[in-house]
Inverse folding.
């Protein structure tokens, strides 16, 4: 038995699993797309969208899909991806890239527990980035 985080993207709201995966695997040194299965002509949902995919970033395997339905919910800051960055420079690089067209919940700073920043990327996924003090 193994738990794997699953990210549901909603193309109808401008959130694309394929675009998100590409961005994430390019940002992280160990990033890689393990597989992707796209919807074909006649499948439920838009042709070419991600039915199911799996990728790795920061040593963690994720699964994702583009929802064929539009839901009333989306990603929430209540669930976020915590990244222990090896350096402040790496933390800054990731934060800056993830913040493009996103939203800063907590700008990079020291909040009493070391260098930290919390950002929502343009796809709605939330990231907490910590670095060594």
């Amino acid at each position: 038995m193994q738990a794997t985080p699953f990210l549901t993207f909603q193309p109808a709201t401008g959130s694309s699993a394929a675009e998100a995966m590409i961005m994430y695997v390019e940002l992280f040194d160990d990033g890689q797309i393990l597989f992707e299965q796209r919807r074909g002509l006649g499948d439920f949902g838009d042709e070419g969208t991600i039915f199911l995919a799996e990728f790795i970033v920061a040593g963690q395997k994720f699964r994702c899909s583009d929802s064929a339905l539009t839901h009333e919910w989306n990603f929430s800051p209540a669930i976020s991806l915590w990244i222990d960055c090896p350096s402040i420079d790496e933390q800054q690089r990731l934060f800056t890239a993830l913040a493009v067209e996103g939203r800063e919940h907590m700008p990079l700073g020291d909040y009493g527990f070391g260098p930290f920043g919390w950002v929502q990327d343009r796809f709605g996924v939330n990231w907490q980035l910590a670095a060594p003090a």
Summary: The first strand starts at residue 6 and ends at 9. The longest helix spans residues 88-99. DSSP finds two helices and eight strands in the chain. The chain has a mean pLDDT of 96.
